[in-house]
Amino acid sequence: MTKDPICGMMVEPEKAEFKTEQDGKTYYFCCEACKGKFDRKPVSDPKKKGFFTRFLERIAKANTEKFGSEPPSCHGQ
Question: Based on the structure, what is the number of domains in the chain?
Answer without folding.
Answer: 1
